[in-house]
Design a protein that fits this description.
The structure holds 2 protein chains of 2 kinds.
Chain A: H1 2-22, H2 26-37, H3 42-49, H4 55-94, H5 113-127, E1 131-132, E2 138-139, H6 141-144, H7 155-158, E3 175-176, H8 182-189, E4 199-208, E5 219-229, H9 234-248, E6 256-263, E7 266-278, E8 284-286, E9 291-301, H10 303-308, E10 317-324, H11 325-333, H12 346-352
Parallel strand pairs in A: 1-4
Antiparallel strand pairs in A: 2-3, 4-5, 5-10, 6-7, 7-8, 7-9, 9-10
Chain B: E1 2-4, H1 5-11, E2 12-13, H2 18-27, E3 31-36, H3 38-41, E4 46-55, E5 63-68, E6 73-78, E7 88-93, E8 97-98, E9 103-104, E10 108-110, E11 113-115, E12 117-119, H4 147-150, E13 157-161, H5 172-181, E14 186-187, E15 204-207, E16 219-226, H6 235-243, H7 251-263, E17 268-271, E18 279-284, E19 290-292, E20 298-300, E21 306-309, E22 314-317, E23 321-322, E24 335-341, H8 344-354, H9 359-365, H10 372-388, E25 391-399, E26 407-409, H11 412-418, H12 424-433, E27 437-440, E28 445-448, H13 459-470, H14 493-507, E29 511-512, E30 518-519, H15 521-526, E31 546-547, H16 552-564, E32 570-579, E33 587-596, E34 598-600, E35 609-610, H17 613-626, E36 635-637, E37 644-654, E38 657-665, H18 667-672, E39 679-684, E40 710-719, H19 725-734, E41 739-748, E42 757-766, H20 775-793, E43 796-797
The chains are: A alpha+beta, B alpha+beta.
């Protein structure tokens, strides 16, 4: 009797399972579920009839029935998932978009090559212990010239093409600074000699000369450097500037030459040249070839300048340097002309500018690889 | 300073070649600006004879010539008037580069006649400006030789840049001395026959300066020359002068110019017959005196300029330029020669006031050899006699005794200042070769600089002399020590703010620009500037006359310029100074930006949206946030400067301090720049932002709730004039702990509500912190909120 019953149930199960697998729509499947496991479903009826059997049969058939029920539920669930997948597949077929389209979005902006260069200089000199200071663009004659050992009659003054502002009631004319060197004086004046050990400063800024042609702009940018301490000598000047040139131009073997020169506020003075090659099209390859290119001026701070700001030149000495930032930028990034620097031409700015995400540093690089 | 290779060899005995010399010059501080080797440029130009001439069939003024170079014959079309049969001239074959025309010669047809080259003028060879005829070579010239050999052009011209301290190298001899010291040969002795003169000078000096002003002319020498023939100079002399850009004039003038280049000693020659009286008086000018200079110009003198006068007036502006009236001419037979030392400062002042430049002034300003006047009297006499003949007088002079400058020098300072170790013997030998006199004592050397080095003033100058001859390449390269510091940022907070702001703005679409700090007057006035103290005395153009009071006009110009070249939508910013006055405190650093045009363009996805006030307001807020200013610390006011649209602009302040101006630019200014849409600008005064007080690097602990936030929406009716932002503030104040966000969903002022009113719909986010809020608690918050709005802003709840 039990075995007959089991056989009946097995047949029923087989029928239901094959019904499930043959079902073609979710509603057919739902019908099968109701007809088998619903309130009056075939399996449910068997369960209801269990109470008519003896305990042993009840237990055995009951267990068997539960097993069947589980199998049916699993089959239905599997089939349901299959329908879902099939449905989604059909749906996805209809959900195709035109991937070739791109909506318009305006570009993000760029940073000017000059501010880029200043940032690169900051990164390089920060590594050597320098910090930035600044000074005013409108200077007195004293800071721009006299304190730098450039007297009124000094021939060097004539080379400066100075812009003058209207004289005040005492007849004093202020000037637009012709170089960033006056900030050397302002910085040294502030030194508290009682607590003074050493300073290392770079001083970037705007400078002005009344000259306007293809290679001169009435406004341009310089960066000054100043190191002052007890044991700073010309060897440090050399070491510092060689390191700077090689880092800035990313050429570890860049030839750097120091050549005697003259600035009224340094003694001895040196002009710094880097090695380069001139191509037939006029472009330059930095670090190759036989030619020399002047890129900055430097020297040991003149004893008279130190004396003038109340520093004893027999106790302290140091070096200073100055460079034109437009020129450095043009050389490094192959920018051929000076004038467009200030022309605000969007095409130029986008081409030569730098992306704001590209933050020059020694660890992420100084050369604007992705910009 | 230009000189030629052979001229240098007059003073330098050397077996070095020119490239060794050219390599050495910059190492000594004498930068080589250019080397012109005509022989190299002109090697393809050859000597030919003209063996046949016939008239061009189609052009009257052209000839077709046959020229012969000793081997071949060429047919050449030539238009020169001086061409004649049998003449020897200079020929350039097809393919030759003609430097004077800057082109490569091609075979060509000239009016139907073929031409296989060119007969050349001096101009085409860059020998002179002469181009009226072709070069005529000596009849005896060999054919087929390079013209540079025939014309002795194989003397390279070297130009060097002389720094202001090296007046001694404004003469060839000084350069030779430096080279000799650097081991490039030996300095030749100058053999000059002393000539005491045969008669008393016709002209005499009179020093008309009081005791305090005698220093203006510490030394002046002169002598007379008679029976002169001021003929054209000999070829060698003319060639040398031409090579160094001195125009040959007459032999007397040429000799003075030659000596100036040769030993750096300017001279002045007077025509004795034109001097009124027989005394030349050295004195100071009086204001208003007129002076007619040799350059043909008239100068009105000021007080206290050093001049040399005769009885009639000023004959010479001392050390700068001679006068026209007493200058020498071709007819001069009697000449008085002057060689003096004048005060460089006085000469510089006079030259600057009169804006008069000359080779003499250039040299006087940089300091002359104090001993040169004596020497040059004999040196010049010898040359004048040789070239112009005649007789030489005795020397008349005036000189002040000058005490030698002696510098106490401790040789240890060489190492101390430069880090390079040089043996004392070597240092001494360098200095002595340069002409320094050294008296050593125990610790110090007592050094007398040579008379031609007035720039040498102290120990540092002497160190430079030693190390430059020893070679800057001998200076060690020493790393700056790291022992005194740990790595720290190079930027101060102010720089960092500019740096972060720039990156924020560029990320938001702004392009950084750099513009001039000056503007025209009209613009500075428009932007509240234009103070007299910020006006340039010598502007470079009428567009750049005044220091800018704002960067906005520069950015508006930038917009205008870009629209002219086809751009449409523009966002620019600049970080830079503006000027309120001429003192350092009145220079203010700002971050200024402008937007113009479409924020979003019309395409298949979006419709057009123009930039407006609110976009720029957000730019300002986001930028300020990036540089340490939380938005809730800012208060907004309607006080923007007059260059903004009065109803569409605002300022941000912290307390009473102005942080930013922003808004639409005033329509009148937009109109001035010829723009047809509104531009929206901002100016951030970032120096005014108070720096965060936080000293700690660590941050306060983060408190976060995992409970679900609840949102509620309300709509209220308000007076039309109410500042909407106030609603958000009031709502937040209802429960600062729980209400975390208020967003204005909608602003309505249409027909459904009374006029003069507006409806504001808001969404409030309530974030429970401790436990989920009960309905009652939420209801209580809502009621409090509605009451607060009613009480503080007279808003009434609208039924949703």
């Amino acid at each position: 009797m039990v075995s007959e019953l089991k056989e009946d149930l097995q047949n029923l199960l087989n029928d239901i399972i094959s019904g499930i697998s043959n079902s073609e729509t979710p509603s057919e499947l739902e019908d099968i579920r109701i007809n088998s496991l619903g309130k009056n479903g075939s399996v449910t009826l068997y369960l209801k009839n269990l109470r008519n059997y003896d305990i042993k049969t009840k237990k055995e058939i009951g267990t068997y029935l539960n097993e069947i029920k589980k199998q049916i539920i699993k089959s239905i669930t599997d089939k349901k998932n299959l329908f879902k997948k099939k449905y989604l597949k059909e749906k996805l077929k209809t959900e195709k978009i035109d991937i070739s389209l791109t909506p318009y979005e305006s570009d993000i902006g760029t940073l000017h090559p000059l501010s880029r260069t200043i940032e690169e200089l900051c990164a390089i000199f920060a590594d050597m212990g320098f910090s930035i200071v600044e000074g005013p663009d409108i200077e007195s004659d004293y800071y721009n010239f006299t304190a730098l050992n450039i007297s009124e009659e000094h021939p060097a003054r004539q080379e400066h093409d100075t812009f003058y502002l209207q004289p005040d009631i005492d007849g004093q004319r202020k000037v637009l600074r012709t170089h960033t060197s006056p900030v050397q004086i302002r910085t040294m004046e502030k030194i508290d000699l009682k607590n003074f050990d050493e300073i290392r400063y770079i001083i970037p800024g705007r400078t002005y000369r009344s000259d306007h042609d293809a290679t001169h702009s009435p406004m341009f940018h310089q960066c000054e450097g100043l190191v002052l301490g007890k044991n700073i000598n010309m060897g440090h000047l050399k070491g510092c500037l060689i390191d700077f040139c090689r880092t800035y131009f990313n050429e570890s073997n860049l030839p750097v030459r120091f050549r005697p020169s003259y600035f009224p506020f340094t003694e001895p003075s040196a002009e710094v040249d880097i090695g380069c090659k001139k191509e037939s099209d006029g472009s330059l390859v930095i670090g190759e070839g036989e030619e020399w290119l002047e890129i900055l001026g430097s020297g040991m701070v003149h004893p008279k300048v130190l004396y003038g700001v109340g520093i004893d030149p027999t106790k302290y000495q140091g070096f200073a340097f100055g460079m034109g930032l437009e020129r450095l930028t043009m050389l490094k990034y192959g920018i051929p002309d000076l004038r467009p620097f200030y022309d605000c031409d969007l095409r130029w700015l986008k081409h030569y500018g730098f992306l704001p995400v590209d933050n020059p540093s020694l660890h992420s690089g100084l050369n604007g690889v992705f910009s | 300073m230009k000189f030629t290779w052979k001229w240098l060899l007059d003073h330098l005995e050397t077996d070095r070649n020119i490239s060794e010399i050219l390599d050495t010059l910059p190492k000594l501080g004498l930068e080589v600006a250019s080397v012109i080797n005509l022989a190299e440029d002109l090697k393809s130009f050859i000597s030919v004879e003209i063996i046949d001439i016939k008239k061009h069939s189609n052009a009257d003024n052209l000839n077709v010539c046959k020229v012969f170079d000793g081997k071949n014959t060429f047919s050449v079309v030539c238009g020169a008037p001086n061409v004649k049969l049998g003449m020897k001239s200079v020929f350039a074959n097809v393919g030759t580069f003609i430097p004077g025309l800057n082109l490569k010669l091609k075979k060509g047809k000239i009016r139907g006649e073929e031409s296989f080259g060119m007969l050349c003028s001096e101009k085409e060879l860059t020998l002179s400006e002469k181009h009226e005829g072709i070069i005529e070579l000596e009849e005896t010239s060999e054919l087929g030789l390079s013209v540079s050999d025939i014309m002795a052009l194989n003397d390279p011209i070297i130009e060097i840049e002389i720094t202001p301290n090296r007046g001694d190298c404004l003469g060839v001899r000084g350069i030779a001395r430096d080279l000799a010291t650097a081991g490039m040969g030996t300095l030749k002795e100058l053999h000059v026959k002393l000539n005491d003169g045969e008669f008393d000078s016709i002209v005499n000096w009179q020093i008309d300066l009081d005791q305090d002003n005698k220093y203006l002319c510490p030394k002046i020498f002169g002598r007379s020359f008679t029976n002169l023939e001021n003929i054209e100079s000999p070829l060698w002399l003319k060639k040398r002068l031409l090579a160094v850009d001195q125009r040959p004039i007459s032999s007397i003038v040429d000799i003075t110019n030659y000596i100036m280049i040769d030993i750096g000693r300017p001279l002045h020659a007077y025509d004795i017959d034109k001097i009124k009286g027989n005394t030349l008086r050295i004195t100071k000018s009086k204001k208003g005196q007129n002076f007619f200079a040799l350059n043909g110009n008239k100068y009105t003198l000021d007080d206290d300029m050093l001049v040399i006068c005769d009885e009639q007036g000023v004959d010479d502006l001392a050390g700068i330029m001679g006068g026209e009236r007493t200058g020498v001419t071709k007819d001069t037979t009697k000449m008085f020669l002057e060689a003096a030392i004048f005060d460089p400062i006085s000469i510089a002042n006079t030259g600057r006031k009169l804006n008069l430049h000359s080779d003499a002034r250039y040299r006087f300003e940089r300091g002359l050899d104090y001993d040169s006047p004596e020497f040059v009297m004999h040196y010049a006499a010898e040359m004048v006699k040789k070239i112009c003949g005649g007789k030489v007088s005795k020397i008349v002079d005036f000189k002040l005794e000058l005490h030698n400058k002696i510098i106490k020098f401790n040789p240890d300072i060489i190492y101390q200042l430069t880090g390079v170790k040089i043996e004392n013997e070597l240092s001494k030998s360098i200095l002595e070769k340069l002409g320094f006199k050294i008296v050593p004592s125990e610790k110090f050397w007592h050094i007398t600089p040579p008379t031609w080095r007035s720039d040498i003033d102290g120990s540092a100058d002497i160190v430079e002399e030693i190390i430059r001859v020893n070679g800057y390449d001998q200076i060690p390269s020493t790393k700056l020590s790291r022992s005194n510091y740990i790595p720290k940022p190079a930027m101060s907070n102010k720089h960092r703010q500019a740096f972060f702001a720039s990156r924020t703005l560029a990320n938001r679409g702004y392009n950084e620009v750099v513009t001039f700090s000056f503007l025209n007057k009209a613009m500075t006035d428009q932007f509240n500037g234009g103070s007299f103290s910020l006006n340039l005395v010598n502007p470079i153009s009428t567009e750049l006359t005044d220091m800018r009071p704002s960067i906005l006009p520069n950015l508006l110009s930038a917009v205008r310029k870009n629209i002219n070249i086809g751009a449409q939508d523009l966002s620019f910013f600049e970080v830079g100074p503006i000027f309120k006055g001429d003192s350092p405190e009145e220079q203010i650093s700002t971050i200024t930006g402008i937007r113009y045009g479409e924020k979003i363009k019309k395409d298949w996805k979006n419709g057009v949206i123009l930039f407006d006030f609110y976009d720029v307001k957000l730019d300002v807020i986001k930028t300020l946030e990036a540089i340490g200013t939380p938005p809730n610390s800012l208060k907004i006011y309607e006080e923007a400067p007059c260059y903004f649209h009065p109803g569409r602009s605002a300022v941000f302040k912290i307390g009473k301090t102005l942080i930013a101006n922003f808004g639409e630019i005033h329509p009148e200014i937009i109109d001035y720049f010829g723009l047809n849409k509104s531009a929206i600008g901002f100016e951030i005064f970032y120096e005014n932002i108070p720096l965060p007080k936080r000293n700690k690097i660590s941050r306060p602990m983060l408190k976060i709730s995992n409970l679900q936030p609840v949102t509620r929406e309300f709509a209220f009716l308000f007076d039309q004039k109410l500042e909407s932002e106030k609603v958000c503030q009031v709502v937040k104040s209802v429960n600062k702990d729980l209400i975390t966000d208020v967003i204005i969903l909608d602003i309505y002022n249409g027909e459904k509500i009374p006029r003069d009113m507006k409806s504001l719909a808001i969404k409030v986010t309530i974030q429970p912190t401790q436990e989920t809020l009960t309905d009652a608690a939420l209801e209580e918050i809502s009621v409090n909120l509605i009451n607060a709005i009613e009480k503080k802003l007279s808003g009434t709840l609208r039924e949703m």
